[in-house]
Write a structure and sequence with these properties.
The structure is a single chain. With about 300 residues, the chain is of the alpha+beta class. It has a domain at about 180-290: Beta Barrel (Cathepsin D, subunit A, domain 1). It has 9 helices and 15 strands. The strands form 3 sheets. Strands 6-7-12-8-11-10 form a 6-stranded mixed beta barrel. It has a 5-stranded mixed β-sheet with strand order 2-1-5-3-4, covered by helices on one side. A 3-stranded antiparallel β-sheet has the order 13-14-15, with no helix packed on it. The longest helix has 26 residues, at about 140-165. It is elongated and about 90 Å long.
């Protein structure tokens, strides 16, 4: 299945994983993608920190297209473990901890991972408080006020992101482009539906493979300008294209260099044939016929 994770800087990454993969294996995958060591990764799901490395994604309730939040661990797990061992060997300290922080004391005895997480949270709160005290020490310090303003802004950004994660997590997933199966002059292709392209565009190599390069009218050569520029070799005024299994249309193609996609089915053909992009049916509808959009893996 496919899941995504987003970092505290707003970057979104996609992962193809198995539901039975353990958290420690996911951490290893993320380390190869981001360079963040597994020990320094903090993964959260629906606001809950994932702390058991032996649990699987399925056990955590993670499903297809879910989003995890990745943060960096600024606390050394070795340091937290040293604190825990000290508490276990000092009964008087453990007794004090039971009175002041019973949850932390219980974690020290029964759940080392939870203990590390709680220590990290306490240190983060202390760091934030120290930063706030430092910034508020001199209200006339322009640089300090600028940093306070930036901190407030980032708090609002984080709150906005958490709201989006809770109510519309799908907005962080990768958007799949719309492709359909077509056939040009007997040659099967996958065409991308592109309403931002004024013309239906084909690459020279694709035109060669389809056997229509001999029909290119070079009087229509030029330069396409938009996000960058590309050389237009010419235009094929008419060639037969088959959409789906039994819909045949006459189509014109602009032959253009520098295309990542072999074929863009552009706005000219969509308007000419009164096509409808029906996302509810997940299909391109032309003349009452539905041509299904391809799945991402296709």
């Amino acid at each position: 299945m496919r899941i995504a994770f987003t970092t505290d800087t707003g970057e979104v990454h996609n992962l193809e994983v198995d539901p039975h993969m353990k958290l420690e294996d996911i951490n290893a995958l993320i380390e190869t993608m981001t360079g963040i060591a597994s020990a320094n990764q903090i993964l959260s799901y629906h606001g809950q920190e994932l702390t058991d490395p032996k649990k699987t994604l399925e056990q955590y309730g993670v499903i297809q297209d879910d989003l995890l939040l990745l943060a960096r661990n600024q606390t050394s797990s070795i340091g937290a473990e040293n604190i825990r061992q000290t508490l276990l060997t000092r009964p008087e300290l453990m007794q004090q901890l039971l009175q002041s922080h019973p949850e932390l004391a219980d974690a020290a005895v029964n759940d080392p991972s939870r203990f590390t997480a709680l220590i990290r949270q306490m240190e983060q709160r202390q760091q934030r408080q120290q930063q706030t005290n430092t910034l508020n020490a001199d209200p006339y310090d322009i640089e300090a006020q600028r940093r306070i303003e930036e901190e407030i802004r980032m708090q609002n950004v984080t709150a906005n992101m958490e709201t989006a994660l809770e109510y519309s997590p799908e907005s962080f997933a990768r958007v799949t482009m719309l492709h359909i199966n077509v056939e040009v002059n007997g040659h099967p292709l996958k065409a991308m539906i592109c309403t931002c392209a004024q013309a239906t565009i084909m690459s020279p190599q694709c035109a060669e493979n389809c056997g229509i390069m001999r029909l290119v009218d070079k009087r229509f050569a030029g330069v396409a300008k938009g996000v960058g520029t590309a050389k237009i070799i010419g235009r094929v005024h008419s060639a037969q294209i088959r959409l789906g299994t039994d819909l045949y249309l006459a189509c014109s193609f602009t032959i253009m260099e520098g295309r990542e996609n072999n074929l863009l089915f552009g706005l000219d053909m969509l308007k000419r044939h009164k096509a409808c992009i029906d996302l509810q049916k997940n299909a391109l509808v032309i003349m009452g016929k539905e041509i299904p959009f391809l799945a991402d893996q296709e």
